[in-house]
Amino acid sequence: MTTQNTTLNADRPTGNSAGPLLQVNDLHVHFPTDDGLVKSVDGVTFDVEAGKTLGIVGESGSGKSVTSQAIMGLHRGSSAVTSGQVLLDGEDLMEASESRLRKLRGKDVAMIFQDPLSAMHPYYTVGNQIIEAYRVHHPDAKKHEAREKTIDMLSRVGIPNPKVRVDSYPHQFSGGMRQRAMVAMALMNDPKLLIADEPTTALDVTVQAQILELMVDLQKEFHSAIIIITHDLGVVADIADDIMVMYGGRAVEQGDVIDTFGQPQHPYTWGLLNSMPRLDQARQDRLDPIPGNPPSLINLPPGCAFSPRCTYRDRVPGDRCRTEEPELFAMGHLQHARCFLTEADRIEIRGGSDQDPSAGQEAQA
Amino acid sequence: MTKKTKSISVIAAVVAATTLAACGGSSSGGSTGSSGSASGGSANNASASKGGTLYYTSNKPRQTWDPQRTYTGEGISLEGRLFSRSLVQFPVTSDLKASSTPIPDLATNTGTKSNGAKTWSFTLKDGVKWQDGSPITCADVKYGTSRTFATDVITGGPNYILSYLNIPTDKKTGLPVYNGPYKKAGQSYFDKAVTCSGKTITYHFNKAWPDFNLYLAALRAGDPYKQSQDKGNNSNYTVFSDGPYKLQGTWTKGQGGTFVRNPEWSSKTDNIRKALPDKIVFQEGVTPEIGVQQMISDSGTAANTVTTNAIPPASFSQITGAVAKRTINPQSPFTEYLVPNMLRLKNPKVREALAIALDKNAYIQAGGGSKMYAPAYTVTAPGILGFKKNATFSGLPDSGDPAKAKALLKSAGVKMPYPINLTYPGGTPTSDKQFGAIAAAWGQAGFKVTLNGLTDTYYNVVQKAGSTWDVCWGSWGADWPAMSTVIPPLFDSRPNLTPTTTGQDYGSYKSAAVNKLIDKAAAQTDVNAAAKIYDQIDAILGQDYAYIPLAIDKFYRINGSNITGYVNNPAEAMYPDLGGIGVKH
Amino acid sequence: MFAYIIRRVFSGIIMLLLVSLVTFILFFASPVNPARLSCGKICSPALIEQNSKALGYDKPMIVQWGQFVKGIVAGREFPEDASLRKSAPETIATCPAPCLGYSPLNAETVSSELGPRIPVSASLALAAFVLWMVFGISFGIIAALRRGKFLDKLLVSAALVAYAFPTFFIGLFIYQFIALKWGLFPVPVYTPLTQDPLLWLQGLVLPAITLALVYLAGYVRLTRAFMLESMGEDYLRTAKAKGLAPRKILFKHTLRAALTPIVTQAGLDLGLLLGGAIITEQVFNYPGVGKLAVQAATTYDLPTNVGIVILIASFVVVANIIVDVLYGLIDPRVTLA
To answer: Which residues form the ABC transmembrane type-1 domain (chain C) (predicted)?
Structure first.
């Protein structure tokens, strides 16, 4: 297991507080089920630096949400089997006690979820839930202080008339307002790391943009690191500094956003970019969805997990894609991809596609 | 279980006999009308000691404590022994003859009849008092009888007196013009029919009533009632005693109450009741399953308890040794019989074949055995005056003779197998098994039996005129130990059969000869003479196969170990005779 | 909300009227003639007719129903007989509003029959309710928290076993062995609360356990199911991500969501039960409404039957209204309109 990551991990310092804010090393999250072992996350390594944003991209079931929850230890107490390292400011959260984790959750690491309606308790007011998030980490804070801080935070995330809305129930908010409230809740304790799991998926496009803008603004203000998990490359292009593309529980491509969008290296990334609607072209003939379905996490295809769906697998000689698993090879400047295609093949293929994948960067600007 | 079902269907229809008053009597007839030899019960038995608390447990709640409304054997027995004395009552005894012979209670003798048994008079003893110390007067006795006439207020009680007292009837309704002491319409007629002269009360009837004093002794309808205590229906659970016990506080239906000594009662005026316990506690709603278990264990108050709960068959195995010695197993006053539908089974040979093939033993076995039933040979019970086994049925084997019955059915020339719809109160495995046993034997005899086990409204269905059953089940107990309370109610077609119902003549039996003899018996001034005529009628009923006797119900109960003086008294319908029971203490 | 309650009460009254009408129709469809029942063993048609008239059964059904409804509103007298009222007023049974009828068989108004029995049934129902709610919900929570583990399987199957045994079996077993044979507990006898609260409670324990066992299984399973549903909700993940302690998550977040739907079920069950627990009352000889219902049914005491049906129906209707209003209060998403 270690060898396949050597290219990325070779010189990584570990346990060093001088390093990035978050370092995830060789993270595995496996769920034993009646049908077999589900390898949701199977050896993922990445860093996030303070004030920076990492975008994790992938289809449903690629392991991106599980990764984010594993960082916070939310799988503890369930049947999940985890291994690897999650270093936050050099402290290994995988080794930390549950009570230590509880102190970190919501304080140093906060989270925003996909569907703000189901993510908020229907029986308690928005204010109540935000106040609770604050007071759990500020047990000495007085109730009215917490309430004032909440109103203030609601106001900062753009909730109109926050003094009144603080006493509203989640179902009385619109979708966008609820997500703003979630953001407010997450920011109550000035988190070092904000994990946003599909924060805009349930929202309509204009509201999406507002929420993203809000997150970017607040990041500047609070200097937080952000991990944004999405299947929407446009979102990543908008706000991320780095990107990790996940497939079948593993990273298939990792790198700087500009590089990755400019010169994507993995056929899966190409597929994602091609399947994305684009506003910069007047009219697209058709979207190219990636053929086939995501792989079963219990029985991953042999060799490269993406090979059954890969149009270019025959370019690699000797049926290598189906017999040997590619490592995360370093490709270009700070970029890594899990693919056997030669440099020449990739240039040829990218050049031959009917659009320039790098244009995605400006897609929704 | 059969018993339970039956009793449920029975309460359902008061029409049915089973819960009703019944009394045994001697087979040789008793003296009536003379100032009888009052030897039945000795009031001061030296071996029995006074004091202690007696417990009386039962399951179903008492419907009333009103003497004029009471019509169950148990209620009649309890009231008579506890707080409602009568002009005459039956003694505390298990002797068949003595138990059906009235002895003086409030009256000085057992009554004087004259004018061809159309006039009866009684004289009250000196010194008999109500619980408030006031003397019992002739007017009180008269008032008690008057209450029965208020049929809209005093409901559910025996109403024989309505057709006997010499009061004109309304032409339209056929009911007496006197309608009781509340509305007082026709009061003058009643005042003429029942007259008081000092302590002597005289009843004037419109026809002979030779067994009037049996009526007085066997029911509570003729007991005195103090007018000042009467609130009609509102005094349903009021107890105003002239007997040895009075109610302490109030009666709570479904739970019971406590009777304590009535200081105004004196044993000097009462040679029937021993009144041994100081206190009698009634507990209602005690189920047989639990109550009998307590009795078997004999712990706590159970040792001082008598119960009307039957021992359930599930507990039979526990009845051994010392426990068995505490059980009693007398024949009840209730006889079960089968009734052929005369409108459908017109061929007498078919009815005869049914009687011959009837397997009483199988019925009894399926119903729990000899603890529960004895085979019956006539519709009357052994305690009744003039009781005789019916010659038609007494020679038949208890297990039936299917071969003989089959031959008879063949000779009748009917199509075989002959279809029979046998209708009975079903709904329990036991009753279905019992009637299944009857059907099996009849099947061997060439009948094809369809079992029709009804639940709930059994009698209402059976009594419908023009019913399509061929044979049904019936049960009857006499109101007093004379056949006049068995044969006419069951087989006189004139009052029973109407266009809509068969009354108690379930089989629509209609015989001019029987009706004529019934009139003749009713005209007799002497009960023994009447009994002879009823025996003739029973013979005709047998020859006609108007009914087929099945079984006599038996009671199977258990007493606590401290109970003394327990007698199986037919006059008390085999319920615990509180006139003689005491507790060791 | 006030308008809502008024509207619900109004429709509840309509419902009760309909129930009483249907009961009356069934009453008349019965093959039993109540006038026959009130007239001893041997009874002539003339006497039956006279009784029928005295009891008012000769009038058309709709008139009798009208009188019944009038009795509930304004009270009645039995028998309704002006001449008897004049000559012997003491024999008239007055039945003040709400008058549920008069049972000739028991010579008592149905209300006065029911009156002393309602506290008995209510005591039993409430005691059982407390037991099954406390134990059913705790067991359900424990089972859900230990989902798939031994304790979960033990609790769920034990509750099912208790449920599978008929009430009368459990009741008789408890009565027979625990009270009688082994003497572990005094034989239960009902004592009014006002008379002696301790004896009241003592007499309630065994019957209430019996009755609670009937409902326990259902509530264990219900609580467990709602708990599991609630535990899978996104907002619990949010609560955990906030850094809340497990205890706080359980009591504030999980239970609040899981127990709210149980209120509906509990309210309706309690409402129905206030009208009497037939088997338990029968087995333990508890003089409650359920026992009266059995007596009334087996003796064809139709007026009492009608009264009990109305009583139970009104408990259910009221329970329904209360549950709905309560739901509006505890679930902010529900608006009463």
So the answer is: 118-327
DSSP per-residue letters across A11-78: T---S-TTS-SEEEEEEEEEEEETTEEEEEEEEEEEEE-TT-EEEEE--TTSSHHHHHHHHTTTTTTS
Q: How many CB pairs under 8 A join A and C?
A: 73
Interface mutation target, options C229, C235, C263, C329, chain A, most CBs of A under 10 Å: C235
C251 touches chain A (CB under 8 A): no
Last residue within a domain, chosen from C80, C112, C144: C112
Cross-chain Cβ contact C330/A123 below 8 Å: yes
Strands, DSSP E only, in B305-370? 305-307, 327-328, 331-340
Tell me how many domains chain C contains. Answer: 2
Q: Is C90 on the interface with A (CB under 8 A)?
A: no
C303: pLDDT confidence band, cut at 50, 70 and 90? confident
| A119 touches C237 (CB < 8 A) | yes
**Is the Cβ pair C243, A111 closer than 8 Å?**
no
Q: Does C334 map to a domain?
A: no
Q: Is B48 on the interface with C (CB under 8 A)?
A: no
Q: Write the pLDDT tens digit of every residue in A292-335.
A: 888 888 888 888 989 888 888 888 888 888 888 888 888 877 78
* Residues B353-382 pLDDT 10s: 999 999 999 999 999 899 999 999 999 988
User: Looking at the structure, do residues C94 and C187 belong to the same domain, yes or no?
Assistant: no
Q: Are residues C192 and C51 in the same domain?
A: no
Choose one of C50, C82, C112: the last residue of a domain.
C112
Beta bridge partners of A247: A250
**Identity at B179, one-letter amino acid code:** N
Domain containing residue C78: 2-112
Q: What confidence tens digit (pLDDT) does each residue in B469-510 have?
A: 999 999 998 888 889 999 999 999 988 888 878 888 999 999
Contact between B385 and B483 (Cβ < 8 Å):
yes
**Six-digit token string for B31:** 């003296």
Q: Is there a single domain that holds both residue C160 and residue C278? A: yes
Assigned CATH for B331-554: 3.10.105.10
pLDDT tens for C236-291 read 989 999 999 989 999 999 998 888 889 888 999 999 898 888 888 888 878 899 98
Touching check for C70 and chain A: CB below 8 Å?
no
Full set of structural domains in chain A with CATH: 22-247 (3.40.50.300), 254-277+291-351 (no CATH)
Amino acid at A201: T
What are the chain A neighbours of C238 within 8 Å (beta carbons)?
Answer: 111, 113, 119-121, 129, 182
Chains that touch C (3 or more CB pairs under 8 A): A, B
Q: How high does pLDDT run on average in chain A?
A: 83
Set of chain C residues whose Cβ sits within 8 Å of the Cβ of A132: 242, 244, 252
- Indicate the residue type of B275: A
Band of residue B5 on the pLDDT scale cut at 50, 70, 90: very low
